[in-house]
Amino acid sequence: MLEGITPLPLVELPLASTNGLVLGENVAARWPLPSFANSAMDGYAVRSIDVAQATPDRPVELRVIEDIPAGSWPKEQLIPGTAARIMTGAPVPAGADGIVRVEHTDGGMPIVVVSSPAGNDIRQIGEDIAEGQQVLSAGTVMGPRTIGLAAAAGRGSLHVHSRPHVFLLSTGSELVQPGHALQPGQISDVNGVMLETALAGLDVSVSRSNIVNDDPNVMSAALMAAAQSADLIVTTGGVSMGAYDTVKSVLSSMGTVTFERVAMQPGMPQGSGRVAGTPIVTLPGNPVSAFVSMEVFVRPVIRRLQGHEVDWKTSGSLRIAESFRSPLGKVQFVRAQIDKVRDAARPIGVQGSHILGGLALADCLLIVPAETEEVLAGDTLEFLDLRRDSR
Q1: Which pLDDT belongs to residue 148?
Q2: Can you give the residue range of the structural domain that contains 118?
Q3: Rounded Cα gap, residues 286 and 264, in angstroms
Q4: What is the DSSP string of 319-354?
Q5: Which of these, 47, 50, 29, 66, lies nearest to 122 by C-alpha position?
Q6: Same domain, yes or no, for 101 and 151?
Q7: Residues 229 and 280 both lie in one domain
Q8: How many domains does the chain have?
Q9: Most buried residue, 60, 201, 221, 388, by CB count within 10 Å?
Q10: Quick one: 155 and 104 in the same domain?
Q11: Cis-peptide, bond into residue 287, ω within 30° of zero
Q12: Do 171 and 258 fall into the same domain?
């Protein structure tokens, strides 16, 4: 499904709008950080030699010739026997080479009584970052800390890969909107609302169509409309072997979508390709199958569009608390709960592709290899962590 998927083009956005997006350029500092020598403490800028012998018993008196708040610039140069009152972040005046913290003085003006030698509380020019130094690399995922660094380095905007727009279609004449009374043969559109929220958690913008029925003409029109505005189309339902699996029949006639039977459970029927040049992933209709397929297939496609390096990784491995069997020849994604005390996982509920109760209570999906028919208590399995979605 990743074949032919490339990162979306770069857009220039204000710093605050880049949160969660992938940086598309290297960022260098326009000036050194700090850009001027400044005080790390509230106190008095002094010549260290003037207060080198100061103690509480034998304090030194200095004449205060200037008051320097943050945001101002010193007007005077210190000469022997003088000091300048200075606030945190304010520039250090010429002639000063030390700061006496205010708590080591009487806080006086225009004469200050100093009872301690000067400390090393001057932030020197460029001690954090040199002018022209690269501070961020293309591929960095922007967040509060990197946005703050970009701001300090002199940037007000950045070139980032744009946020993907995903169009989600729920298909099937049997579907009704959640909350509506069900008539005989109808079911609620679980996949639409479940996948919409799952997609939103992947830092994409999501549009969701009204439920699309099994009329081929309606389906074709909905798909073509989605292709005009979306970076990725995701459909659910209509991809199995039934006579009314309209998504499969409509897209097969377009000749740009391939349908496969994947050796996994749940989530065997899958499809991917393009509609009018827009990538599409077609997921099965059973809700657990759709959710698992979203994790296994759609998440990597979206990460590639976002500009991430896509390396499909599990969340680690877990010890299994109780034995269970798995179908031979298929990778099984088993809904499970994690016992934090025992640091072990156990399957939860019936594992059918339509059983939502266990999925709602699961902490993770255990991944059972296709060649494994029985998992024994004490074995370890790789897993996908679902707890990130419980916020």
Answers
A1: 97
A2: 38-123
A3: 14
A4: EESS-EE--TTSEEEEEEEEETTTTEEEE-S---TT
A5: 47
A6: no
A7: yes
A8: 4
A9: 60
A10: no
A11: no
A12: yes
Q: Which residue has the tokens 């509920």?
A: 349
Q: Whole-angstrom Cα distance, residue 53 to residue 170?
A: 80
**Could you tell me the CATH number of the domain that includes residue 366?**
2.40.340.10
Beta-carbon contacts of residue 384 (< 8 Å; ≥ 6 apart): 295, 314, 315, 333, 364, 365, 367
CA distances from 164 to 178, 325, 362 (A): 26, 40, 28
Structure tokens at 161: 């890969």
Q: Residue 217 contacts by C-beta under 8 Å, 6 or more apart in sequence?
A: none
Q: Which residues of the chain have pLDDT under 70?
A: 240-245, 255, 388-391
What confidence score (pLDDT) does residue 390 get?
42
For residue 28, which amino acid is it?
A
C-alpha–C-alpha distance, residues 225 and 97, integer Å: 69
Note whether 170 and 119 are same-domain residues: no
Identity of the amino acid at 338: I
State residue 242's pLDDT score: 55
Shared-domain flag, residues 46 and 15:
no
Give dist(CA 242, CA 157) in Å, integer.
51
For residue 104, the domain's CATH number is 2.170.190.11
* Amino acid letter for position 259: F
> Tokens standing for 11?
């857009």
Residue closest to 63 by CA, chosen among 74, 75, 47? 47
Buried b (16+ CB within 10 A) or exposed e, 31-59: bbbbbebbbebbbbbbbeebbeebeeeeb
pTM: 0.82
Identity (one letter) of the amino acid at 49? I
